[in-house]
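Note to self: the last two entries modelled the partners one at a time, which told us nothing about the interface. This time every component goes in together.
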Amino acid sequence: MTAFTHTAPVVEIRGAVKHYRAPEGHLVRALDGLDLAVGANEFVTLLGPSGCGKTTLLRTISGFERLDGGDLLIQGQSMNHVPPHRRPVHTVFQSYALFPHMSIGDNVGYALDVRGVAKAEKRQRVGQALEMVGLAGMERRKPGQLSGGQQQRVALARAIVDRPALLLLDEPLSALDRQLRQAMQRELKNLQHELGIAFVFVTHDQEEALTMSDRIVVLNGGHIQQIGAPAEIYHRPANAFVAGFIGESNLFDVHVGSVDDGIAYLLDSGGDLLQACHPDLHVGQHAQLMLRPEQFHLHCPGEGFAALEGCLEQLLFIGKDFELLLRTSHGRLVKAVLRDAAPQRLRTGDNVQLWYGLQAAHLIPGGA
Amino acid sequence: MLIRERLRLVGLLTPVTLIIGLFFLAPLAIMAVYSLLEPGLYGGVEWSFYPDNFGRVLGWADGTNEDFDPVYLEIILRSFKLAALTVLATLALCYPAAFWVARQPERMRNFCLFLITLPFFTSLIVRLYAWLLILRPSGFINTTLLALGIHSPVELIYTETAVLIGMTYIFIPFMFMPVYASVEKLDKRLLEASADLGASRWQSFWKVIFPLTLPGIAAGSIIVFIPSLGNFIVPSLLGGARVLMIGSLVEQQFLAARNWPFGAALAMLLMAAVLVCLVLYVLAQGRNSAQEASR
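The predicted structure of the combined assembly is written out below.
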């Protein structure tokens, strides 16, 4: 029984449907029959372009949006008719939403205050929460006296002070500058580990999602495109949308020309020839082949590699890496990012071979 | 550059300084002096020191020249009471309305604000006479009530209630504007944060909404309280002789009784009372912000 409760999901969403009325009058589906379960102690990121439904999903869990269909369970209890203030869930808002008329201590202690926690205990727990986010002793300041990064930490402390079952984070780092954002990413991850509560994190920043998450939920058009660990999402995208949205990629629409000894020979719609290892393909099947720019090598590293050949159209030094744009003889542009110093000797117009591993070449079945 | 800027400042500020100096501060000084002079037999003043103008109200008039009469303090107290009630009544009407208006789409909001200022387009006297017609024994309210079956008309006109209704009516826009400004500024995301952290609607109101709209409430209260304290039009039209208020009393002393020094003394007392209220308010504000700064 204990093992079961340990693995039981904190949040379970079944067939969630949410409509919006667009300004033009027709109905838009923000969530279109969506299923998701978040385990206790899990860091799940909802990732997608704006309008993909990630914020709607978050607001559904916090209770600010009502589902038009489907069920939402938190800790096994249906939340369909529970108002936001009765849900064991707190949110870190994008705008922080700190109460400007209250001190930092009162802000952080708000959740305890409204539950009538005694003053001494409140003071102690506020102190602990502030210490966790690195703001010990700041109780008496006002939000207006703090920097953006500090306000962010206060918002965080306020949301974890009474240890909710689940913490929702709505693009909390988007207003911070790059350096601070990266530092906060690491801190958030550590904090989640320390607290042992589930985090559902919303972002449109794929790097952020890859860095922090245990699992990423890629959303588009109210549908889940893929759920998986960051490495899985990155290396084995389920479809063209995920491949295009996360990281840079070269996508080739191909059909299988022949299969020989586990190696598929693929013909691109433009006419280029490509290869990939794939156990079960049959001749004539359509698919998409994804090659990440950093998968390429200038020289053949050995067995199990194939090359794309073309004319070097552009060579850019982008700080520690070189970016190459290659145009194949069939006119297709291929992007490669190379680490070694060799590209420096290359000139635009040179004939270049880009080698890629057949094992790493990822085939997405279906496609155009 | 600096000199030019100063010259420009002088040019911009001189007219208003002159007007306020000539037509406000100078008469005020004259009033202050008059309040300490002996009233002349046929109006005007005799140039000798005469503390009994204040003594008639505050108690040191011993009967040789003037009599102390507690009725004046009663009148001042009644004025304070009615002004405070006017503040409460306008606030009770405007606060919920401000929330409703703030929730409307922008065009509707602007239309509502226009409606609030609409009464200013008609003369105050005309509007108060309309209330006279509504409140008098043969007026709209009483004919309606009589038709509904009451036996004798309700006494409305020439009561404190009538004065309160009239003052509330004319001061509603003065309360609405500052209250609305603070309500409209309220960040809805703060209310979501409050609910998210477990606060009920009632808790959210007292812990977030009310403190954040308090500056608007305070500003509106001052703007309504001070002019309603000295108001004499509403009491004389709707209160009649029975509901004498300090404003009407001052007016009587100057115009009917021709006792300028006593009128001036009453006006000075009124002004002193208002100043004391304002100073207390400012001190309270200052203590709050000092507390904030020391935290």
